[in-house]
Amino acid sequence: MWKMFSKDEKGFTGLEAAIVLVAFVVVAAVFSYVMLGAGFYTTQKSQEVVHTGVQQASSSVELSGDVVAKSDDGNTEIDTVTLFLQLTSGGSPVDMAKTLIVVSAPDIEPSELKLGAVADGDEFAIAARYNGNTDDLIDRFEKFQITIDLDQVAADAATPTSVGANSEFQLEIKPPQGATYTIHRTAPAAISDIMTLV
Q1: Which is higher by pLDDT, 133 or 68?
Q2: Does the structure show a pLDDT above 60 at 1?
Q3: In terms of CB atoms within 10 Å, which end of the chain has fewer, N or C?
Q4: What is the pTM of this model?
Q5: Domain-embedded: residue 183
Q6: Please, what sign has the CA dihedral across residues 134, 139, 142, 147?
């Protein structure tokens, strides 16, 4: 009977159990740290993707006020179009030097205009800057008065034409980043010196 309780080295002692338990806890802690780190990294990257997507999908400029047109000397066609642009709420600054304005109409193929000193058939001009400095960036609270020589754009078309009474035309403002902002207008039935286009 005493032989049953004899010392045997095949048993599992409390010290060995503690060592194994500590090893399991350390492995679990390292694994959970790695998994949490990967989760936080993935969350951060997905937030960046969402913010970038929202920036790309939303337009960063908007129309501020009416689109005003001036006629030629004979009051038969639209000569220039003036509009005011500002940033959308929460929008980032827009560099007008890198912005394109595409003019099109049923009789005018799309014509890309870049920023220039004077509005003509190839360029639009910044006639005035309000609430800001003299650079070409539309910043927060700034408004830019943009002039487009619609008559010259129509005259420079492959088939020279003009935008007269009841004619439709479209302006697409394409900033370097963000969605295109489209303005669709129709000339009134009677052309006068100064007109508000709707």
Answers
A1: 68
A2: no
A3: N
A4: 0.72
A5: yes
A6: positive
* Residue range 102-111, pLDDT digits in tens: 999 998 999 9
Which residue has tokens 């020279």?
160
pLDDT tens across 123-150, in order? Answer: 999 999 999 888 999 999 999 999 999 9
Q: How many whole angstroms separate alpha carbon 40 and alpha carbon 46?
A: 10
Number of domains present in the structure of the chain: 2
Per-position DSSP letters for 119-142, written without gaps between them: --SSEEEEEEEESS-SSSEE-TT-
Distance CA 174, CA 59 (A): 9
What does DSSP say about strands 78-87 and 143-148: parallel, antiparallel, or unpaired? antiparallel
Q: How far is CA 103 from CA 3, 82, 108, 141, in A?
A: 105, 13, 8, 26
C-alpha 181/C-alpha 170 separation (Å) is: 11
Residue 45 shares a structural domain with residue 88: no
Domain of residue 39, residue span = 13-57
Q: How far apart (Å, rounded) are the C-alpha atoms in residues 5 and 11? A: 12
In eight-state DSSP terms, residue 93 is P
Does 68 share its domain with 49?
no
| Residue closest to 67 by CA, chosen among 178, 137, 163, 176 | 163
Let me know whether 159 and 69 are in one domain. yes
**Cα Dmax for the chain:** 129
Between CA 191 and CA 162 the distance in angstroms is 12
Distance (Å) of CA 41 to CA 45, 49, 60: 6, 12, 29
